[in-house]
Amino acid sequence: MEFVNAKTIIQTVKGNHSWFGASYNMNIYRGCNQGCIYCDSRSSCYQVNNFDTIKVKKNAPFIIENELSRKQKTGIISMGSMSDPYNECETELLYTRKALGSVLKYNFGVFIITKNILVLRDIEILKEINKKNVVNVAITITTANDTLQSRIERNVSSTSSRFNALRELSEAGLFTGILLMPLLPFINDTEENIVSIIEMAHKANVKYIYPSFGVTLRDNQRDYFFEKIGPSLMEKYISEFKDSYMCTSTNHKELKSIFISKCKEYGILYNMKDIIEESKKYINEEQLSLF
Ligand code: SF4
Question: Among the four residues 19, 151, 223, 272, which has the most C-beta atoms within 10 Å?
Answer without folding.
Answer: 19
